[in-house]
Fold this sequence. Notes:
Elements: H1 7-22, H2 26-40, H3 49-64, H4 71-94, H5 98-108, H6 125-134, E1 137-138, H7 141-150, E2 154-157, H8 163-171, E3 179-183, H9 194-199, H10 202-205, E4 207-210, H11 225-233, E5 236-240, H12 242-248, E6 255-260, H13 264-270, E7 277-280
Parallel strand pairs: 1-7, 2-3, 2-5, 3-4, 5-6
Antiparallel strand pairs: 6-7
Amino acid sequence: MKAYLECIPCLTRQALKAVRLATCDDNVHVSVIRRILATVSTMDFEKSPPEMAQVVHRLIRDLSGNTDPYRALKDRYNRLALNLYFGLKQRIESAQRSTETAVRLAIAGNIIDFGAPIDENRLDLNHCVLQALSAPLFGRVDGFIDALSAAESILYLGDNAGEIVFDRLLIERLPREKITYVVKGGPIINDATMSDAVSTGMTDVVRVIDNGSDAPGTLLSDCSERFQSEYARADMIIAKGQANYETLSEADNRIFFLLRAKCPVVAWHMGCDVGSYVIQKPLYNKAALNGPIGAGERSI
């Protein structure tokens, strides 16, 4: 998925939040934002939003001297999610359709996305859980479950810290011996890295690797050879979150995207409403390939 003009204010909002997390120095805030605005003004709109975000966040880390501005938030949401873990596990085990319930909870966890316009101080995870359990799903759970049964090897592309606990709840319902869970190779926004996989117990549940990249989503050309090899031979790929959709939406039919549609552009591209709980294969809204968002029926 290529970038659209609507991605520019989103990138600048992300940049301001990240630099304020990185340092309290107002002079650094000003110099970083000036540099980011100059950089964004020359970006190639044929690139995906995560490719643009990778450049922006590398600049923030370099210019602020803070290698992981979101570290405290990641730790906080790992703890919050772990506090919910046993209650959610019991809810899954008592559900009539336990795998579907676990899928819904995994999607609910995707709200912990601080690249999106989410106020972490007002985020109510319990409300998100209750909403996910009853909300309509955009896509077919049965097709997902059938694919799980048929696959011999499954690559699960994780997204955010905190959310990783919700992924764990789903993975514990699946054939774990088939699954490899993937985290980022370096800090980017609040995406999960190997330290998050360790602290949330994911490494005790399933094999975990990193993708060798510090980009949001999965930029295959930026990932390590080891990851690319794992990706090439997987029978099924579970891709969490909007950034994985943005980077892999034109990939192949092995992928199931699990996400909450928080961005109007992503929702439009997928053909769903903002706020939808999505379990879907790539590129269902083919019209989204034809060009930038315009007026009339193609507006958001």
